[in-house]
Design goal:
This protein is α/β, with parallel strands linked by helices. The protein has two domains: about 5-95 and about 180-210, Periplasmic binding protein-like II (D-Maltodextrin-Binding Protein, domain 2, 3-Layer(aba) Sandwich); about 95-175, D-Maltodextrin-Binding Protein, domain 2, CATH 3.40.190.10. Helices cover about 30% and strands about 30% of the residues. The chain has helices spanning about 15-25, 60-65, 75-80, 120-130, 145, 160-165, 185-190, 195-205; strands spanning about 5-10, 40-45, 50-55, 70-75, 85-90, 95-100, 115, 135, 155-160, 170-180, 180-185. The chain binds 1-O-pyrophosphono-5-O-phosphono-alpha-D-ribofuranose. Pathway: Amino-acid biosynthesis; L-histidine biosynthesis; L-histidine from 5-phospho-alpha-D-ribose 1-diphosphate: step 1/9.
Length: about 210
């Protein structure tokens, strides 16, 4: 009998790209993937169990081994720094992290405030720049912060750039390019290597992925 692989999938913007990718690789995923509120979807024909998680939580499930594999944005991996291996850059859901704010903002020079969903990434970035800032952690709608005077700047994901534009914000600095990655629990990788390598090969056949170091 084949090992069942448990895969943590990020709900939200990456989800459809990830499902498309698995289908392109020839895995038959049922229609439940297109419209369902289920949080666990078993696909016995493919010996897969999918966990539908909040994107920021995917590395946590994988680190704890309740999921063998996961699909997570590089932004989340940089922020969470979990004990997981990156197997593949899936090259889906491309976007980037940027520092942004109001075009004519007078930055508070003593202690500029930076609002973000990525407090660790933002703190490390400004530390490297030799700039002292106060980080304000928010959970979403980050672009609100400079508009209502909560922060001088934001650190956030830019994809199409629409959210910045429609809220009258501009990008100050482009920080890091982001794509989604296939991650694995180190123990699962040892115990279920045959199946995991088969999945990696199937995915590699549809795009030319470079294996991660
Ligand atoms: C993300 C991000 C930006 C927006 C960028 O938010 O935080 O707000 O998308 O995309 P765009 O450049 O295509 O406009 P998301 O929609 O994930 O929701 P959130 O505000 O809850 O984080």
């Amino acid at each position: 009998m084949r090992d069942v692989l448990t895969i943590a999938m990020p709900k939200g913007r990456i989800f459809d790209d990830a499902v498309d990718l698995l289908r392109q690789a020839g895995f038959r995923l049922p229609p439940e993937f297109d419209d369902s509120r289920k949080l666990i979807i078993d696909v016995p024909e493919e010996s897969f169990r999918f966990i539908l998680a909040k994107p920021m939580d995917v590395p946590t499930y994988v680190e704890h081994g309740v999921a063998d594999l996961g699909i997570a944005g590089k932004d989340v991996l940089l922020e969470e720094e979990r004990d997981v291996y990156e197997l593949l850059d899936l090259k889906i859901s491309a976007c980037y992290l940027a520092v942004a704010g109001l075009p004519d903002a007078k930055i508070n020079e003593l202690a500029p405030k930076v609002a973000t969903k990525y407090p660790h990434v933002a703190a490390a970035y400004f530390r490297e720049q030799g700039e002292q800032v106060e980080i304000i952690k928010l959970n979403g709608s980050i672009e609100l912060a400079p508009l209502i005077g909560l922060a001088d700047r934001i650190v956030d994901i830019v994809s199409t750039g629409r959210t910045l534009k429609e809220n009258g914000l501009i990008e100050y600095e482009r920080m890091v390019e982001i794509t989604s990655r296939l991650i694995v629990n180190p123990v699962s990788f040892r115990l279920k290597d045959t199946r995991i390598n088969e999945l990696v090969e199937r995915l590699s056949e549809i795009k030319s992925y470079a294996l991660q170091e």
